[in-house]
Amino acid sequence: MSKHIETTCVQGGYTPGNGEPRQIPIIQSTTFKYDTSEDMGKLFDLEASGYFYTRLQNPTNDHVAAKIAALEGGTAAMLTSSGQAASFFSVFNLAGVGDHVVASSTIYGGTYNLFAVTMKRMGIDFTFVSPDCTDEELEAAFRPNTKAVFGETIANPALVVLDIERFAKAAHAHGVPLIIDNTFATPVNCRPIEWGADIVVHSTTKYMDGHGSAVGGCIVDSGKFDWMAHAEKFPGLCTPDESYHGITYVTKFGNGAAYITKATAQLMRDFGAIQAPQNAFLLNLGLESLHVRMARHCENGLAVAKYLSRSDMVDWVRYPDLPGDKYYELARKYLPNGSCGVVSFGVKGGRKAAENFMKHLHIAAIETHVADARTCCLHPASATHRQMNDDELRKCGILPELVRFSCGIENAEDLIADIDQALAANR
Ligand SMILES: *Cc1c(COP(=O)(O)O)cnc(C)c1O
Question: Is the domain of 172 the same as that of 63?
Fold first, then answer.
């Protein structure tokens, strides 16, 4: 039965049997008991599915991952310990030393660093392209060893809306999948798979958890990418894995499950970046109200953006739902019900004025966090993006006066009054 997304938010991923717990049980167990060594051997050979060690898989996590897979319209999903781990696995599951990936230049600062510095040290090359580049520029970014394209639905904090369809077409023309970080939009506001994305990643730390209580990540596979049609590019999926007695993931598990099974069997086994079952339980509580909260985040975001766009103490406002915004048209296409609660704006007077404004806020707290029920804000140039030089900052759309203001689900009039009095401190 196909259900509306609201129903999936509340009930997806877990259906208790007669007399079983109504809420997803927290399976607080590192290990699982078997009657015979043969039973266990089958699990290690990937001959049978089941749990044996929580470093790889845990039932609590799998219920919550199944809910997120249903929300995104995917065929399989896994939870990771953080959004960073999800981004890393999503690429490393496809690319290794000598390979290359095309990424949008406006992606989250942490992802940029992961790609441009850490994964580069692993021998994977990245070409960063502007999300607004021409088709020719996008085309020119591909190489024979390109293995994936990576972008964000709504870039954090630049609030650039990616033309997902265009990037998907380019990726597919080169026989590689499009990976989309859908953290800011959430599946409530955009389902990238419907626009051609093949793999979706999340920092569940943000709106999905929504209450600032647990760091986590998720990877969802659409099941749509035909790996065998490009077998020479993806030997990890299309040729035998010697660490599992020569099974070939795509042959054994099909397009719907091969990618997530490989990421679980190899990457979770070797890196162990699993989400704690306790955190998965908290994440699920957040997911149950995601649809209700996203609507309020968007309502508050638009009210605050409209107020800011009328203020003479503000140089510029970036919010995709604001008429006249550079990404307004793309937002109407990909985010018809609203984008997110995050508004970026430039405080008149530059870096010092931005810092002074933030000091005078009472309701909005200064936090290295975003997309939370409580309103918070950040000055990226002195926090998340401080490892970048001015040139790199400008390239990813960050100016020194930029304040990233994450509207929570409080009353919009209270948020505006708080901003109003803090901006007045700059007069
Ligand atoms: C926060 C964030 C990440 C990283 O997630 P963590 O859970 O902090 O590791 C990745 N992508 C986006 C868009 C984010 O906002």
Answer: yes
Buried b (16+ CB within 10 A) or exposed e, 35-61: eeeeebeebeebeeeebebbebbbbbb
Name every protein residue with a CB atom under 6 angstroms from any ligand 1 atom: 82-84, 87, 108, 110-111, 152, 156, 181, 183-184, 203, 205-206, 215, 217
Query: Do residues 48 and 159 share a domain?
Result: yes
Asked if 178 and 308 sit in the same domain, the reply is no
Does a structural domain hold residue 4?
no
Predicted TM-score (pTM) of this structure: 0.96
Domain interval for residue 341 = 291-424
Give 384 Cα–ligand 1 centroid separation in angstroms. Answer: 11
pLDDT reported for residue 380: 83
Atom 7, ligand 1: residue with shortest CA distance = 83
Final residue of a domain: which of 235, 253, 285?
285
Which residue positions in the chain have pLDDT lower than 50? none
Ligand 1 mutation pick, 161, 203, 372, 384, max ligand atoms within 8 A of CB: 203
CA 400 to ligand 1 centroid distance, Å: 21
Q: Closest ligand 1 atom, CA of 370? A: 15
In a domain, residue 22? The reply is no
Domain boundary among 254, 285, 316: 285
Sequence-ordered list of residues with C-beta below 8 angstroms from that of 302, at least 6 positions apart, any chain: 319, 321, 322, 338
Total count of domains within the chain: 2
User: How does pLDDT run across 219-265, given as a tens digit for each residue?
Assistant: 999 999 999 999 999 999 999 998 888 999 999 999 999 999 999 99
Q: Separation of 423 CA from ligand 1 center, angstroms? A: 29
> Looking at residue 292, what is its pLDDT?
98
Judgement on whether residues 298 and 381 belong to the same structural domain of the protein: yes
Rounded distance from Cα 202 to ligand 1 centre (Å) = 7
**Which pLDDT score, from 0 to 100, does residue 172 have?**
98
pLDDT of residue 392: 78
Q: Residue 101: helix, strand or coil by DSSP? A: strand
Q: Which residues contact 407 (CB under 8 A, 6 or more apart)?
A: 297, 300, 301, 304, 341, 342, 343, 375, 415
Residue 400: partners with Cβ closer than 8 Å, 6 or more residues away = 350, 351, 354, 381, 393
Residue 1 lies in a domain: no
Note the pLDDT of residue 2. Answer: 66
* 217 part of a folded domain: yes
Same domain? For 146 and 48 the reply is yes
pLDDT at 385: 75
